[in-house]
Amino acid sequence: MPISSIREIIPHIRAAGLMALELQRSGTLHASLKADGTIVTQADTQVEDVLYDKLTALYPEANILTEETAHAFDPQKGYTFALDPVDGTEVFSRGLAGWCVALGLLDQSLQPIAGAIYAPCVDMMLVADVGQGLTLNGVPLRPTDQALPLSENSHLFVTSRIHRLLDLRRFPGKIRSLGSAELHLSLHLLYPDIVGGIQMPLTHIWDVAAAHALCRAAGLRIEYYDGREIDYSVLGGGGIAEDVLLAGSAAALQALRATLPRAKQNS
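Given the sequence above, the corresponding structure tokens read:
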């Protein structure tokens, strides 16, 4: 059965995000290290469990891929959800605000067609429903053109270790990092002085699918630094991004590539 909307899951995303926020503020948050060295908290697992159950009930015909629990991917299914219960767990675990709950929906060709990002600390819900434009907290949002050329007033949101792969010294404006990949790749949709976002290759499907759906709804892009489109069949099978990810308008991505060359590697 075709999925024509994700609106039924949006209230559950908000409720799960507020549950995570309450845990963050409770003073009882416990963080531990996973096998890959990244941090997990009880909020990650509790939010994932709640939303996985809701998604399974609402959309039984879809794959559901989540960060904290491995689930089988069936390429014959018509849809795939990618859920990050707490994107930005490290900053979340330290009591900071740069995290969100992110859900992306991909069709059978593994193209992002809908997404939702909820940042509870600022009560910001960005949604692009199937075949629809962007909304911010339920109000239609029409992204403005990103301010170009790059200047001292330009802002760029990046992952914290991107300086290891790209030379940032020629960027004339301000470079900022929050902690959440999905927020890094989508905040340019809200503010014209944010020219784009950049994310490291250590990115899974649940780190990018929601933001990619939002960007596509606005006519903007997320693609690899070398210009290739993301092959979600690689990410859907458990792989990671094959190169640095850039988000923004076509003109902004061209300007970023020209300004931020790959960093020279020490021999």
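The radius of gyration is 18 Å. Try to locate this feature in the token string yourself.
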